[in-house]
Write a structure and sequence with these properties.
Helices cover 22% and strands 29% of the residues. The chain is of the alpha+beta class. It has a single domain, classed as Alpha-Beta Plaits, CATH 3.30.70. A four-stranded antiparallel beta sheet has the order 2-3-1-6, covered by helices on one side. A hairpin with a 2-residue loop joins β4 and β5.
Length: 107
């Protein structure tokens, strides 16, 4: 296919059901939430259950020290819906969980 004047090539679509202007991955934007001041013995499953109260959770990662593998006291929670993430921030930021006030904010 010849390039257009801008230098990019034009893509042809075999049919309307198979051609989308953007892929699904390009249209879904995950909102990452920083969760700080966690008790050291928390698990990803506990955080997933907590955040699923507010919406769909795509990923949970508790940061650990590479040498000792102990929790560093914070995590990143990926939520698929921006409004649900904002609701989780509003309800959980400053909440006392597992004996400590946690910090939740968009990262």
């Amino acid at each position: 296919m010849p390039p257009s004047r801008s230098g990019s090539s034009v893509r042809s679509c075999p049919g309307p059901a198979t051609c989308h202007p953007k892929s699904l991955l390009e249209t879904v934007r995950m909102t990452n939430l920083f969760v700080g001041n966690l008790a050291s013995n928390r698990t990803p499953d506990e955080l997933r259950t907590l955040f699923q109260t507010y919406g769909s959770v795509e990923a949970v990662e508790i940061m650990t020290d590479p040498q000792t593998r102990y929790s560093r006291g914070f995590a990143v929670v990926g939520m698929t819906n921006d409004l649900e993430a904002k609701k989780a921030i509003a309800h959980l930021n400053g909440a006392v969980l597992w004996g400590k006030p946690i910090r939740v904010e968009e990262s």
